[in-house]
Structures are given as structure tokens and as C-alpha cells.
Amino acid sequence: MKSKKVKIGVTIVTIAIILGSAYFLLKEDNKKSDAETSVPVVSKTVKNAMKSSQKGADAILAGTVIPNSKSKIKLDGTRGIVTELHVNEGDTVTNGQNLFSYYSIDNETELKDAELSATNQVNSVAQKREAANLKWDEYNKKKANAKKEETKEEELNTSYMEASNAEAEVASAQIEADKAQLLVDKAREKVSQNTVTAQFDGVIKSIDKDQMNKPAVEGSETPFMEVVDSSVQYVEGKVDEFNKDKFSVEQTVQIFDRNDNSKLWTGKITKVGNLTTEDDDKKKDDENQNASKYPFKVLVDKSETPPSIGQHVYVKLAPKEPEAGKIALPKGYLMKEKNKTFVWKAKNNKLEKTTVELGEENAEDGTVEIKSGLTETDSIVYPAPELKEGMEVKQDAQPK
């Protein structure tokens, strides 16, 4: 009986040990499985790792595409009403091209009156010239026949004075005619100024035709016509004080459409302002008032499919190609073990430790030169506590 109880006890202990071992092994497997599934193992090429370490590589700015210049033309009620358009929306125009014309009855009346007055003055000059010529003919005739007809000197002097006075009247009439012509020129210039011309090469963006044939509304802020010069484009926006020092003039940048990152353009920074910008109260309520904002401007490179004016975009520094033949890896990828330095390298989609030989350190960029152990096309993984040799690396992260 006692022997049977011992056997039963041994059996129970054995089952307990087996169950405990199974539980422990299952728990360890779950831990391993959790570690492997909770943190995806992602690799990138050494070349891309070096690009991501460049100063400002993580900074992204928001901006809006603007034209080189734009002209919002408002109507001037003192010049009359617009009765004639010389262009349409979407037309391309050149500097000096006629856009639209005013009509002013006052200006037209002034021109007609000036032209009538000038015509009368010209006729007056002609009449006085004819009269003066007759006086001179009369004087010259008397002078030629003075001895024969015994003309008295006093009578001859009187004839000369009459001719001279007639000549003076001609000169006076000519002065008045010249004045009248100046008034005509002035009136014509005023009428010609009723035609508004383009101030630069550009495109007609909009025309508010409802304002035609009506007196201009005093104080109206609505432009009648808008012309934009899109031959050169810029991106304008603001950069906060935390990212300002990551950007500088002449740096090359990439420009992305906010809604479609596949649309990419390039450009160059032309301005990073030193003075903070003034926002309206509504914007200030939505922003961190403890962070100053500085204006920036980017010149967009010309392309066959340029961005649209007013398009919202993101701007980031264009990655520089690493120095040929030199590997400068961010220090975060390096790990120490038994006086050796290694990195996690993906080989055949599996993690393995790879020992590397170090060179000079760049404190500013936070990188260390790798003299041996890696190539630019190798794929590496950023260290994490749960990484172990043999772990699988995502296939889509492998170098192409």
C-alpha cells in the first residue's frame, strides 16, 4: 500500500515537472514571438543611412507656390468706365500689351474742343498771313514807285508800319496756334492713357466682367483684372526657431505636393529671414506663441510640369551624395562588445553581427568613418534591445 502511494506521488511530481517545463518553454516562445512581432526589423542601405544623417535631413517646411510677380488692377472711377477688353482670361501677354480701355465722355469732349480750337487758330494764322502779305505788297509797290509818283516819305513809313504790324499779328496768331496744338496733344495723351497696358510678361489669371460698363465702386477692394508672371516661381513660408539653423541660402531642396508626394520639384533657398514675421490674431491663437517664426523663400527650378500658383507644398533639404569611397556612418548604428565594434547587418534577410574598423569621428554630424567591414550597398538595421542574430529582416527593406 505504501509502495503504491509512493508510485502515485512520483507520477504526480513527474507530471508537474513536465507541465511546468512546457509552460516555461511556451512562455519563452511567446516572449520571443512577441519581441519579433512587436518591433518590425527594418533595414536600409548604408548609403541611405549616411544621407539620413545629414544636417537638417529630418526638417520639413510647409509653404505655398507664388509667382515672380503679380498685378491686381482695380478700376479708377475718375478715368471713366471700361467699355473694351483687349484680352481674355488665360491669355499670355507681353510687357506693354493693351489689356482694356476706359471711356470718358469728359476726355472725349475735351479732345474735340481742343482740336476745334486748334483748327480755328490755324485758320486765323492763314488769314493774318494773307492780310500781312497784302500789306507788304502794298508797301513794296509804293517804295518802287516812290520817285515816279513822288510818294511822300511819311506816307511810305506809314505803309511800312502797317505791314510790320500785320506781320506781328501773324506771329501772335502762330503762338496761339501752337498753344492750341499743345492742348490737343495733352488731351490726346489723356485719352490714350485710358488704355491700360501690361507691366510685364505674364498670364491673365482673372477678369471680373461684371464691373464693365459701370462706374467704379469707390473703395472697392475687388480687382477688375489680375495678371501673374509665372515665368519664375517661388515657395514662401515660415520656419520656426528650432529648425531655422538647419537651413541656409543657396541650399538645394526638394519640393513635394502636400497631397501627392509623387509630384516632386527641386529648388534653391534664396532667403531665410532674420526677423520674425507678424501673424494676425487668429493665426497666433492656433500656433505656439513661444516659438518664433521666420520667413523663408525658395526659387523653384524650371521644369516641363511646374507646380500651380497657390499650390501648397512641403520643402526639405535635398540629400547630398556621400563622398565617393568613404563611409561615414551615424554613431547610433554602432555597438560595442568585448573591445570590438559591430553593426547589425542584414544578410540573406537574416540579422548577423558584423565587426567594423573605425576611422575618424565627425562630432558635428555625429558620424564615424568606417574603414572596413561595410560597403555602401550593404543593408543594416538600427540597434534595438530585442534584436538577435538570425532574426528575419523585412524583404522590402533590402537594397535594390
TrEMBL record:
Q: Gene3D superfamilies, from UniProt?
A: 2.40.30.170, 2.40.420.20, 2.40.50.100, Helix hairpin bin (1.10.287.470)
Q: Which InterPro entries match?
A: Beta-barrel_YknX, BSH_YknX-like, UPF0194_transport, YknX-like_C
Gene Ontology CC: cell envelope
Membrane-crossing ranges are 6-26
Provide an example Pfam family for this protein: YknX_C
Where is this protein localized, as stated in its record?
A: Cell envelope
Q: Which domain of life is it from?
A: Bacteria
Q: Which residues form a coiled coil?
A: 129-190
**YknX-like C-terminal permuted SH3-like domain ranges (all copies):** 327-394
Q: Please state every residue range assigned to the domain named YknX-like barrel-sandwich hybrid.
A: 73-227
YknX-like beta-barrel domain location is 235-316
Keywords from the named record: Coiled coil, Membrane, Transmembrane, Transmembrane helix
Name of the protein: Uncharacterized protein
